[in-house]
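Fold it.
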Amino acid sequence: MNGVAFTHGPIWYGATVLVVDDEPTSRTLIRRMLEHENFHVVEAVDGESALKLIQTRTEPFDLVLTDLSMPQIDGRQVSETLARYRPSVALLGMSGNPDAVPHIGASDMPFRVMLKPFTADDLYHAIRDAITRNADLAAAAEKEIVQAHVGLSRLARALEDSRTVRVNTLDLVVAARELRQVQLGSQGPRTDP
């Protein structure tokens, strides 16, 4: 997480979480819950300040926890910017509107959405699951990249072998022509009786 080498604890221990919520009471409560469990918390008071942090912060976030129902720039826009600028960061949505959660949680939303209010345990489990899922996806992507690299290396070797075969074949053709010319030259001109 954030380039810090942990010697113990799960992958989410000490994770840095960006909490985006336009409701100060909710933001403060979430910050306290997370700090109690050794998370590092950065707060954004609205979607606009979250976008600035996502785009400019040099130290990455491990997870962004965003309210989806905010004026002007909502959680969906925050998630789109996060996907563009920081695709490796886990995302968790939240909403106080029960009617919005099933709709928001539809298949077009690739992250979990929690209904507010939620318990500290529910929040910890959701964060743990999101960060773990993200780490698993990153590991799978890395494995695919390694496999693609191995495949490309094999292809490059096969192309080089093919090039070598073509060069060797060309050398054989040239040698055969030269041999034929030598044979024809040693026989001299043909004289027909």
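The domain at 16-141 is CATH 3.40.50.2300 (Rossmann fold).
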